[in-house]
Design goal:
2 copies of one chain form a homodimer. Chain A has 552 residues and is α/β, with parallel strands linked by helices. Chain A is 34% helix and 19% strand.
Chain lengths: 552, 552
C-alpha cells in the first residue's frame, strides 16, 4: 500500500502546475532545459506584428529568466538535478497565427465585445530540443499561450527547466468574461497598485478589470468637462485618476489581454457628488445616515429631476469616451427609497411630471443607457435594476448578480445576460468584521470569509436550463475596500481571486484537493514577481502535495 | 442641536491621539511647534546614561522629523495653519530619573521579572516654549514617555506641531505583561520582519514578544549543542534563526523595552524533531494524521522515555542560555493521547516504570521546568498542563489560557498566574478559512474573525474575585501562521494587536466608539513608518471622527 502511494506521489510531483488548467493537456515526464540563448520568434506569416505582441514576448522572456521559482517539493528542485542534467535544451518558441487570421493588436482583441473574443491557442513543447510553438487565430490567443508557457518553468541553481515535456495543450476559455472588481472609492489605490494587480490578473488569464471607480465616499476620476467631481470629491489632489492615468491603465491592461469595464455607480452611492453639486443630491449627509443609506455618508442623485437626469446622461457620454471597452456599468445597486420618500424636491419632481418612482427611474436609466448606446457601448447594471424596479432595460444589458447567487435564475429568466458576482461566493472583503463605528461585537454582513475553496466550488450554470447557459458571460471576485488599501491589497486578493479565474476559464467542477498544489505553485510564482500573495498552508504542506489533506 | 454637535466635534478634533491611552491625561487646546533645533537631553542627574537610552533618544528625534503624519481631519492639517502659525516653538525635552533611582539599561529593565518591571513616567509639555520633561524611576519609564511624546506631533507643509498643549501625563501600565505571540514555525519570517514587528509593538508599548519558535512543521532555531534540530528541521538552510540572529533580535527588542519569552513547544507539536531524532517521536508521520495530531504532520516526543526526558531538560538548559528573559515557555498544548496509546515504545516505558500517563508527564515537565529553574527561569505553559493533566507544577508557573477565556477562572482558582491568550478574543488568524486540504466548504475552527473591537471589549478580570486580580499578569494577541507569511504579516497584525495593547496598559472598559479615532491615528502613524497596517474604514470616515458610527 505504501509503495503504491509513493509511486502516485512521485507521478503527482511531475504534473505541471498550470493555472488555470487548460481544456486539453497532454504531457510527458521528460525534463527540458531552457537555453541561455532562448528566443521567441514571430512567424513570418504574421505580417506587421503589433507592438504589444513584441512587448508581450519581451515580458515572457524576462519572466522566464527572472521568476526563479524553485519547484514546490522538498529540496525545491535539488532532487531534479539528476533528471534535468542530461536534458535537451529548448532554444526557441515560435508564435504563429492560423492562415486567414486577421492581425490586430492584443489590446484591440481584448477590448472586443464579449461575443467576439478569441483567446484560444495551441501550445506544443517537444522534449528533444526542437522548436516549441504557439498557434492561435488571434494575437490575444498567442498572449494566453505565452502566459501558459511561462508557468512550465522552474529554476534550480541557475538552470531553468521544465519537468513534464513533451507537452501538447489545446486551450480555450469556458466563458468570455473572467473579471476582478476593485473599488477605488472607499479607499484610494495609486496607479502602481492597479498596474501590479493587472499584471497578476494576466498571470491567471483574468481578462476584465471591473473598475468601481467612484462611490459615496470619494470621486477620484477626473472627467473632462466634469472636473469639479474630482476636484471636490477626491480624497486629495494626489488621490485622483487623471485622463492620462486612465489612458495608461487601460493601455497597460489591454497589452495584457485585459479589458477595463468602468462603473460610475448611479443613482445611489453618489453622496460625494454633493460636494460639488449639492442641489443634485437627495438626503445629502442626512442623519441618522442608517435611515438613508447603506453606509455613510447618505446621499443619492435626484434621478427624477430632469436636470440631474440630463447631466447624468451627458456624464456617461464623457466617461464612455475615456474607456475603449464595449461595456460601461451604470451601477444601480442599493437605492434607498426612504431617502427619496423624504426628499421634497424628488416628490415635487414626481408629482409635477405625474410619474411613479419606477417610471422616473426608468426614464433616468434609459437616459444614461441611451447615452452609452449612442457611444457604442453596452450597459451593465447591478441586479436590482432588473429584479427590483422592473425597468424593462434593453435586452443586451449585462446584469451583475451580487446579492446572492440564488438570484441568477430570475435574471436569466428575464432574458438578460449575467456576470456572476455573488457576495455569497465571491466577495473578497467578507468576514473581516464590521467597519462601521460604534459596534463592539459587530461582524461583517456577508460573513463568513469567502475561502478560495468555496469560490472554487461555484457552479456558474446552477439552476439553469441548458438553453439558458449561453446567457452566462462569466464572473468575477470582487473587492470592496472599506477595510482595504494599498497595504493589504495583494494579500486580500491573491491567490484567492485565482479561484474564479479557473472556474470561468476551465469550467466548473474542479476539485479543491487536486487544485491546491497548482494554486500553491501559481501563488509562489506571484510572490517571485513581487506580489504579496499569501501562503495557503504551512510551507511543510506546500512542499508535500496532498500530505496536509484532511484524509491523508 | 447641530451647533452643539459642531462644538463637540471641534473639541474632539483637538483631542490628542495617544495609544494606549495614558492613565492620567490633562491637555489644553493650544498649538505648539517643534523647533528645527529641537533637542532631547538627559538630565545631569543621570550619571553614565546607558547606550540604549541614547539610542532611544536618537530614534525619537528621527521619528519626530520623519513621521510626517498629517492630522486625520479633512484637509489633513491645512485648517491647523491659522492655529499653529503663531504658536511657540518647543526647543527641548529633558529626561530625568527621580532621585535615588538606579540607572540600568532599558534592556535590563525590560528583561526583569514581571513583578519588578517599572514602566511609569510623567510627561509634561508646556505651551509657551519652555522645556518639556519626562521623569521616571527607570530608563524603561523614560522610553515609554518618549514613545508617548512622539505621538503628539503632526506635520503639515513642513511644520511639525502639536494641537493639544499644555499636556500633563502621569502614566503607568495596568498589567506588567502586554504581549504579542508570533509563530515562526508554520511559516518562516526573516529577521527583518521580526525587527519591524518589534518596532511596531514598541510604538503601542507592547513589552513582551512571545516567540513560538518551533512546531511540528519546522524547527528554525539553531541551538548550540542541538544543531541537528534546525539542520534537519528548518525549511531551508536560509530559513533559520542562528544564535547571532537571536542575540540581535533579543537585543533589538530589549532596547525597545521588549522582553522575549521564547516557547519551544513540548511534548506535542514536535513532529519535525523526528527528522533528526526519529527514535524520539511517537506516531511519527502516522496516517491518517487526523487520528494522531491536531494538524499534519503527526508526531510527539516520547516523554515517558527517560532518554527523551533528559534530552528535553538539557535542551531547555541550552535554550535558557540563549534568552535573557526571566521566562521560558515549555508549551504543552494539544497533547494527543491516542498517539501515545498506540505507541508501543511509550506503552513499554509506562509499564516498565509502573507510571500512569499523568505521572510520566509530570516527571517530564518537572524535568524541563527543573532545568529552567536551575537556569533562573520561570516556566510558562499552555493551559492544558494545569487543567487537563493535574501536573501540580510549581506555583510560580505562568499559564497561558488559549482555548477559551472561560477557562481563566479554573486556572486562577488553582493559584497560578495567568497570561490571557484566549482564542475567542485574541487569535489574529481566526476567520480566514480552513487551511487543511481537501475541505471545500471548511471554515476556520475559531471562526469568526476576531475584530479589534471585540478584542478591545475583553475584560481581564471577568469572573474573578478581587483577591484573585493580582494573578492576572496581562495578555496578548496571537498569530498562528498556517496562512501567514512575510507577505501578510503586517496586515493581519496591525492595527488589531493595538487593541490588547491598550486593554492591558490602560485597563479594561474602554469604549470602541471613543477609541476608533485614536486607533486610526496610530494606524496611520504605523503606515508612515513603513508598516503595512490596514485601513479600518474608508478614508472619508477616518478624516471625520464619529461620522461613520452606527448611531451618527
Amino acid at each position: 500500500m505504501m509503495s503504491l502511494w509513493l509511486v502516485l506521489s512521485a507521478a503527482v510531483s511531475l504534473v505541471g502546475a498550470l493555472w488555470p488548467l487548460p481544456q486539453n493537456l497532454t504531457q510527458g515526464n521528460t525534463a527540458l532545459r531552457l537555453s541561455g540563448n532562448f528566443d521567441i520568434t514571430i512567424s513570418p506569416g504574421i505580417s506587421e506584428p503589433p507592438q504589444d505582441l513584441y512587448d508581450a514576448i519581451s515580458r515572457t522572456r524576462s519572466h522566464l529568466f527572472t521568476d526563479d521559482l524553485g519547484r514546490l517539493v522538498v529540496g525545491r528542485g535539488a532532487g531534479d538535478v539528476s533528471t534535468f542534467e542530461t536534458a535537451a535544451y529548448l532554444s526557441s518558441l515560435t508564435l504563429s497565427l492560423e492562415p486567414g487570421s486577421s492581425v490586430l493588436s492584443i489590446t484591440a482583441e481584448a477590448q472586443k465585445p464579449l461575443e467576439e473574443r478569441d483567446e484560444a491557442y495551441t501550445l506544443t513543447v517537444p522534449s528533444n530540443g526542437s522548436v516549441a510553438s504557439i498557434t492561435a487565430t488571434s494575437t490575444l490567443g498567442l498572449l494566453r499561450g505565452l502566459t501558459t508557457f511561462e508557468q512550465l518553468w522552474y529554476e534550480y541553481d541557475g538552470t531553468i527547466y521544465a519537468v513534464n515535456t513533451p507537452i501538447q495543450i489545446e486551450d480555450v476559455p469556458a466563458y468570455p468574461y473572467r473579471g476582478l472588481m476593485l473599488d477605488t472609492a472607499r479607499n484610494y489605490f495609486p496607479v502602481s497598485d492597479i498596474l501590479r494587480t493587472l499584471d497578476t490578473m494576466s498571470l491567471v488569464k483574468i481578462n476584465e478589470f471591473n473598475w468601481h471607480i467612484s462611490d459615496s465616499q470619494s470621486f477620484p476620476l477626473q472627467i473632462p468637462g466634469y472636473m469639479e467631481l474630482s476636484e471636490y470629491g477626491a480624497y486629495s489632489p494626489q488621490m485622483i485618476y487623471s485622463p492620462n492615468d486612465v489612458e495608461y491603465i487601460v493601455s497597460y491592461a489591454g497589452a495584457r489581454g485585459i479589458d477595463v469595464m468602468v462603473e460610475v455607480d448611479t443613482p445611489g452611492h453618489t453622496s460625494i457628488i454633493g460636494e460639488s453639486h449639492p442641489e443634485f443630491i437627495a438626503c445629502y449627509l442626512a442623519r441618522p445616515w442608517a435611515s438613508y443609506a447603506g453606509e455613510p455618508p447618505a446621499g443619492q442623485l435626484r434621478f427624477a429631476n430632469a436636470t440631474v437626469a440630463n447631466w447624468s446622461a451627458e456624464l456617461f457620454t464623457a466617461v464612455a469616451q475615456m474607456f475603449p471597452s464595449s461595456m460601461v456599468s451604470t451601477g444601480g445597486d442599493e437605492i434607498q427609497t426612504y431617502c427619496y420618500d423624504m426628499d421634497e424636491e424628488t416628490q415635487y419632481d414626481l408629482n409635477s411630471t405625474g410619474r411613479t418612482f419606477n417610471e422616473a427611474l426608468t426614464d433616468y436609466v434609459r437616459g444614461t443607457h441611451g447615452a452609452l448606446a449612442a457611444a457604442g457601448k453596452t450597459p451593465a447594471v447591478w441586479e436590482e435594476m432588473v429584479l427590483d424596479y422592473n425597468l424593462s432595460l434593453s435586452s443586451d444589458t449585462l446584469v451583475l448578480v451580487w446579492i446572492s447567487s440564488d438570484d441568477v435564475k430570475a435574471v436569466v429568466d428575464q432574458g438578460f445576460r449575467v456576470i456572476h458576482a455573488a457576495s455569497n461566493y465571491f466577495y473578497l472583503d467578507c468576514g473581516a468584521g464590521e467597519w462601521v463605528g460604534g459596534d463592539p461585537t459587530g461582524n461583517s454582513w456577508c460573513d463568513p470569509f469567502k475561502t478560495w475553496q468555496y469560490a472554487y466550488t461555484f457552479d456558474p450554470l446552477a439552476n439553469l436550463t441548458s438553453d439558458q447557459y449561453s446567457q452566462i458571460m462569466g464572473g468575477q471576485q470582487l473587492l470592496w475596500t472599506e477595510q482595504s488599501g494599498p497595504d493589504n491589497l495583494d494579500p486580500i486578493i491573491w491567490p484567492r481571486a485565482a479561484a474564479s479565474a479557473e472556474v470561468f476559464w476551465s469550467g466548473a467542477g474542479g476539485n479543491v484537493t487536486a487544485a491546491l498544489p497548482r494554486l500553491h505553485d501559481v501563488s509562489f510564482r506571484m510572490q517571485q514577481r513581487g506580489v504579496r500573495s499569501i501562503p495557503l498552508q504551512p510551507l511543510w504542506c506546500a512542499l508535500r502535495p496532498y500530505e496536509c489533506d484532511l484524509d491523508w
